[in-house]
Amino acid sequence: MKYFAFYFFFCWQIIQPVAAQEPKLPLGLGSNDEPTLPAGLAPKKPLNGMRGEEPVLPSGLFKENELTLPKSSVVDGYAAKSLMRKLPFNLSGFWEMRGGTRVTNDSNERQTSIAETRLQLKLTKNIKNVLVNLTTDLIYDNVANSHAINLNAGRGFIDLREANLTFSPASFMDVKAGRQILTWGTGDLIFINDLFPKDWNALLIGRDEVYVKAPSDVLKTSLFSHWANLDITYTPKFDADRFIDGRRISYFSTNLNEIAGRNAVVRTDKPNDGELALRLYRNLGAYETAVYFYDGYWKSPGGISSTSGLALFPKLRVTGASIRGPLGRGIGNIEVGYYDSHEDKKGSDPFVNNSEFRVLAGYEQEIARNVTLGAQYYLEHMFDHKDYLLTLPPSFPERDKNRHLLTSRLTLLSHNQNVTWSLFSFYSPSDMDFYLRPKINYKINDRWITEFGGNIFGGDKNHTFFNQSQNNSNIYLSIRYGF
User: Fold this and answer.
1) Domain that holds residue 90
2) Residue 430 lies in a domain
3) CB atoms within 10 A of CB 88
4) How many other C-beta atoms lie within 10 A of the C-beta of residue 385?
5) Which of 49, 152, 233, 289 has CA 20 to 30 A from 32's CA?
6) Is the pLDDT of residue 4 over 90?
7) Is residue 413 included in any domain, yes or no?
8) What is the mean pLDDT of the chain?
């Protein structure tokens, strides 16, 4: 709770000058002749100009409510729509079955990579000036050893995706309180300044890509003005990633110096303190710009206790910035972040992550009719690398000073855009490993969608980021009914 008083004091200091007097616009930018904003940045309230929508998300990172399928035709959906009109709230969702198998043998995991069915129910209702939102997934998971509910870890037969209230106490302010899914930054499946929890298991076993984003229990305040918008998020209790711990996906264990899985499930010691994240953003012409600040902890384990052997989440502070907008015939983006690892300032503790500088540059363009290509370059630069090497235990694998990563996303739409062919690839020239995500998505009609895909890993060394998952290579098939 140490950020609680600071949080509201900071909001009050921001609100006072904004509420007192709106800043004057430069000559030529009066209320009657404001320039047209780019797509996704149109004001929510054109009359006062105080509020703007969040920037358009990169490809592959759609918001949770975009997961539902288009409403069906009158022929096959009349009865369902008539029933929904009688409900005292808005109801939507989907039912899905998804199954997959490993294509290689893994002695530490089940051969079945995914075998589950889920029913998602999304309820929304306006009560006076408050929007109530509840999104719950009911799941039967045949791969899990236990069905006990753990909402933060995403285990059990219930996954509570959203449970929040949204209201506007002033014309320049929105408040969203409760469980929600947040996305910041410009990367496509690469996250620098997005320090909200991710579900890496969901990505690697073949769940829908939207499930890479895990929910957070957050108080979010958004302040809007003519010159910039400010998001302030406060998480009362640390929300970690749903990281790879061996229950579903095998990994390289530094303790055992080999690939491990259910035989060595990662045990952690999580902090109970809160997290604070800020984003100041605005558009400069056609370009979306933002600066970020985060004060919390490494979201996935970033250290090991030398006494207990438990995985730790060391203290972390991140500052960064991003810009995204037109470049040539496509869209370009650049994002940077400085990861200040507070518990290893000098880089001399081999059991805690060193500080890092991270940078991402991306570009996306339609290269032919219904064919889109996106590419990214990503760099992780470790500070104090020499001190890290001097104190590294002999059995621990050595990390490179610079880790380079290249990605590409190729998407083809065919059959009247009802079939989507996609290949997302990761390749690290420094680690000499790769990860491929091919998939075919077929929209049968307005309600039914089926998908076939895979997750393929490879490389030279067992301990590298992608090749440690070489035994997790899998293929999967899904069918979904939306309503």
Assistant:
1) 4-96+112-348+392-402
2) no
3) 7
4) 16
5) 289
6) no
7) no
8) 86
